[in-house]
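Before the break, one more example. Copy the sequence into your notebook; we will annotate it together after we see the structure.
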Amino acid sequence: MVSRLYIWVGAFIAVSLTACGGESTANPIQVAFAQEAPQASPGITVAFRFPRDGNQRVRLYGLPTLDPVNIEFAASEAGTREFVGFVREEDLIYTRNANDELSALDLTAGRFRTVDTLVQRAVVSPTGLPIVVHTDLSVASIQNRVVDRWATSFPAEPTEAWGTLGSGLLALFDLPDGRAVGIATPEWDEHLVAVPSGLLATSSWGDVLVVATDSGIVSIDPRERTPTRFLRVTEQVTALSLSPSAHRVYAGLATGQLLVVNRFNLTQLDVVQLPGTVEAIRPDALGRYLLMRPADDANIWISTIDDLGNVRIATGEWDEHLPAVGPDGTVLVRNGGELVALDPATGQVTGRVSDADRDTWALLTWDPRRPTLQVAAQRSVQSLRPSNGVQFFAQVSSTSNLNWAQDEVSRLSQAGMTAELIPQSAFDDRYRVGLGPFPTREEADDAGRVLGRAFFIVAIDLNDVNNDS
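Here is what the structure looks like once it is written out:
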C-alpha cells in the first residue's frame, strides 16, 4: 500500500513546476517579474498530524489509506492545541499552541515560526487572511507572517469568531443585556447586532447567521440591526447548520427528523426522517455529505446530500475538528486511540493510525510538486531538515533558453543580488535561476521574500552533483 502511494506522489512530482519565464526579446527580468505567481494545481489530499506535545514532528499521511508519507516538519516547541487554517497562496499553515502563541508552518522552508503571542482567538478568513484577537481584546491581521495591528479593540471577550468575505472578523459576544455580534475591520465602529438565545450557525463567508429560538428559525444579517427572516417551527430544534454555500439550512428536530430550509427566504424545502434525534450537524466543505452526531453520542451518522434519509452508521467520537471529510471524500473519525479513515459510500475502513487520540489533524489538498518535496523524494530522506553538503537556492525562474537564463543571472547580480544557475538534476533539463547558494534553508527563504515575487526553495546535494560530473 505504501509503495502505491509513493508511485502516486511520484507521478505528480514528475511533472515540472517552476516559475516559468518567457523567451521573448523583452527585458527578461521585467517579463519574469511582471508575471502572475504560478497557480497551484489541485494536488493530492493529505492529512497533517500536529503533535499535541512539543519535541515531536509534524507528519503527513496520504488519503484514503492513511499511509505515511516520508516527509516530516519540525513542530512548534509548545505543541499544537488548535489548527487555525491554511493560507494556500503563501504555503503557510497557522496553528495555536498551549502558550497562546500563533505559529506558522512554512511548507516551503519546512519549519515553524512564531508569528504572534497572547492570542486568544485566531481564524483564517475566506479570502485567506489570518486574523487574531489578543488577550487584551485588540485585533490584528497577518500577511506573510507580518502582524498588522488594527485600531480595533473589542468591548468584551468574544465567545466565537469567524472570518468574513470582506477580510473582517465576525465576533459573538455574551453581554450583560444579551448576545450580540459585530464585524471587526481595521476601522471598528462598535456596531453590534442583537442575537436571540438558542442554537446558532453561521455561513462560511460570515455574511449570515441563523438562530433556532423556542418558536422558530431566525435569519440575521450581521451588517443590519434587525433580523431579516423568520420561519415558525413548532418542534424543538436540537441541531443547526448551514450548507457550505449557505443556500440551505439543516435543522435536526426532537422528533428525529431533519428539516431542510431555503436560507434566502426561509421556506421549508424538505423534511427527512432520521433513525433518531441528532445533537450536531457538520457538512463537509464541498457540500457532498452531512455528518451527524446522534443524541446517544455512541456513533456518527453519514448521509449524502442527495439522499439525506439514507444514513450510514460509523463508530467514532465527536470533537471540534473530527469527524471530518477530506477533499477526496474520505471521512476521518477518531475512535478510541485510533484515527480511522472511512469510505463514506460503503462504510469500509480504508486506513488506520494508532496512538492518535491527543494530536490535531487537518485534511488539506496540497500540491506536492514543490522543489523541497522533489528533493526529498529523490534522496529518500525522512525530513526536510538541511544536512551537510547541501546548498539552498531561492528559485525565481526557469527556461529552456540558456542565453535567457544567463542574462537573468547577470541582471539580478547587477541589482546587487547573489544569483546563479542552479545545478541541473537528472529529472529536469531546464535552466533554473536562483538566488544563492546559501548554507541554510532559512537564509534562502529570507532572500526570496526580500525579492518580493514568487519563488521556491531548492536544495542541492553537492555530493550528488559531484558524483554526476
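DSSP finds six helices and 36 strands in the chain. The chain has a mean pLDDT of 81. Try to locate both features in your own notes.
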